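debug: dumping io for the single-chain case to check the tokenizer round-trip. Nothing else runs in this session.
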Amino acid sequence: MTSRIGTNRGVQGSRFEVQGKRKLHLAPCTLHLGPSQGFTFIELIIVTVVLGLLLAASLPRLQRGWSRLQMERTAFELAQTLRTARTLAITQAQPIDWVWDPDARQVWLGAPQQGGATTPLPGRFGVPHAVPEEVDLTVIQSGQPVQQVTFLPNGTSQSTTLLIGDPAAPR
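debug: decoded output
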């Protein structure tokens, strides 16, 4: 049994065996554009200008999106370092400091020493993590800006708020 699907005058199709019993004849479809098969130079210039205008209009939105993405990434990384500090304080049964250095724009973990100083932890935990210039970071405890958060061996710390924002954004 042979059946024809989508025939097109004067064009030969291919024959395919279907399950060894039936033959199916498929003819390809063609699209005839007529005498005009391209674009004029003026049409190409108009399309290019329209695309340029759309790109120029969307650029500020893309920049805001990039800024927001950078802030979200920084917030995630800061949260990770805070979780790591808490986990280390519990597992090592000693206080661990999460330190924010606003001058160097870096966050690192350290062990508190006598007199309030903090020594960076050995290995990868004591390596400073840079905070991008495009991100504004403020650490607040009891309403005052601070530069460190100490996690105790029981996993607690003083109530702390991290304010993360875009310094160029209106407040």
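debug: round-trip ok. Helices lie at 41-92.
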